[in-house]
């Protein structure tokens, strides 16, 4: 009896969590991981908006005339609606990163839909008048029921994860990592908040320093930085 129960639990775990993650991470099934147009890249920023770092990031993007995509937390959008308005006003795309930074592996499908996706979409729509339709689950972890949302949301992962939540990484090698690994069609994920579990609270400060150097260098490579909804 105990053996059968154990096997059943393991099977549910594999079906609910591991299979969809393998399908998306290894095969790219049902998700956007990179673009196909030459000379286009997409910078994306997770976990914000943050009252200190997001304004500095928006200033930097405006300086270099870069359009980006922000995957925001609904709770943060609720707390800082003026930053959401500024993102929209300055031409950036706003996507969903759940209401709070909780893994989809740890929640039931109904909780994700009502408590995170719909709730965050309602918040963003109430602020800017446009309902977001791009979604990045926290940590990129997907469960089997997330595939049911593909008609409503485009699920986005990335082709370049720079590990910028670590202050040490930002200070030592983030710039070179980005410049060496950015290619045509790259979807780059960075973070404009260090408040998430496992992140360094000061890391975004150093990320912004590295990003400025990277954006300056990318000008010489003739790469266009676009929103995800502009990327083929």
TrEMBL record:
Residue ranges of the TM segments: 6-24
BP GO terms, sorted: carbohydrate metabolic process
Keyword Ribonucleoprotein: no
Cited Gene3D superfamilies: Glycoside hydrolase/deacetylase (3.20.20.370)
Keyword Transmembrane applies: yes
Annotated keywords: Membrane, Transmembrane, Transmembrane helix
A molecular-function term among this protein's GO annotations: hydrolase activity, acting on carbon-nitrogen (but not peptide) bonds
Entry coiled-coil feature ranges: none
Residue ranges of every copy of the NodB homology domain listed in the record: 39-226
PANTHER family linked to this entry: 4-DEOXY-4-FORMAMIDO-L-ARABINOSE-PHOSPHOUNDECAPRENOL DEFORMYLASE ARND-RELATED (PTHR10587:SF137), GLYCOSYL TRANSFERASE-RELATED (PTHR10587)
Protein name: Peptidoglycan/xylan/chitin deacetylase, PgdA/CDA1 family
Naturally occurring in which organism (per UniProt): Paenibacillus jilunlii
């Amino acid at each position: 009896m105990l053996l059968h129960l154990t096997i059943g639990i393991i099977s549910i775990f594999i079906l609910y969590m591991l299979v969809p993650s393998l399908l998306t991470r290894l095969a790219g099934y049902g998700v956007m991981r990179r673009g196909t147009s030459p000379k286009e890249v997409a910078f994306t920023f997770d976990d914000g908006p943050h009252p200190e770092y997001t304004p500095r990031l928006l200033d930097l993007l405006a300086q270099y005339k870069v359009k980006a995509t922000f995957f925001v937390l609904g709770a943060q959008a609720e707390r800082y609606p003026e930053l959401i308005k500024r993102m929209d006003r300055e031409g950036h795309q706003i996507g969903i990163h759940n209401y709070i930074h909780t893994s989809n592996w740890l929640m039931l499908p109904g909780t994700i839909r009502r408590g995170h996706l719909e709730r965050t979409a309602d918040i963003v729509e109430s602020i800017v008048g446009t309902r977001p339709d791009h979604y990045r689950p926290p940590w990129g972890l997907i469960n089997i029921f997330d595939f049911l949302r593909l008609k409503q949301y485009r699920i986005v992962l990335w082709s370049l994860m720079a590990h910028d939540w670590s202050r040490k990484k930002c200070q030592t090698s983030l710039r070179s990592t980005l410049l060496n690994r950015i290619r045509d069609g790259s979807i780059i994920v960075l973070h404009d908040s260090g408040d998430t579990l496992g992140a360094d609270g000061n890391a975004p400060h150093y990320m912004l320093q590295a990003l400025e150097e990277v954006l300056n260098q990318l000008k010489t490579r003739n790469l266009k930085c676009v929103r995800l909804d502009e990327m083929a």
